[in-house]
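Changelog-adjacent note: as of this version, every example in the card shows the full chain rather than a window. The one below runs 191 residues end to end.
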Amino acid sequence: EQRALKANNNIVPGLGWTVDSMPGFCDGTVHGVCKRLPDSDCLLSGHMDHRGGILGDSYSGWLVLSVPNVKHGIIILKLDGWKQPINPKTQDWTSENNGHDGNARLLKEPYDAVCPDFAFDYAVDGGGIVTLDRVEYFEKLKHIAHAEDLFVILDDENWEQNQQERSVELGIRFRGCARKNPIKLTHVYWA
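Full-length structure tokens:
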């Protein structure tokens, strides 16, 4: 089965996405030990507050996900752009995917949080690429709490009558800020 996004938009997975995580068992319970590093000088040094996720910037290219069992036509992303570390994967890069075409792999005020040239691209299941500038992006981003932002990618009220439960391919990409203002995808919710 050919990927829907590659077939219709030639969207291929980017090479610059990285997992931002800490070692340990980070389940939030009293017994969990998270972020205890070899150079820790305190045996009680275990943090349950690390916000892990998939980190990308404007050089990371497309992050392509397959969201299984979409039954009600809803996909929401939880994105975290608050004080993110610089993406180590793109450290010496000067362009998206470091100039590779991606064929090697086929699988404050809110506006100040990103650079002036910020753009957010997304595509759902072979549909066209939707591009939002920074104003449009922040209008659509729902701020629910400190460092907690949700972005509704798909909310199709007619999904159940037009579709059966199935997997949906989703692609997202950030552009325009080089390595500044990395954003982390922490959760994908769907129904």
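Structural remarks: Confidence is low (pLDDT under 50) at residues 104-108.
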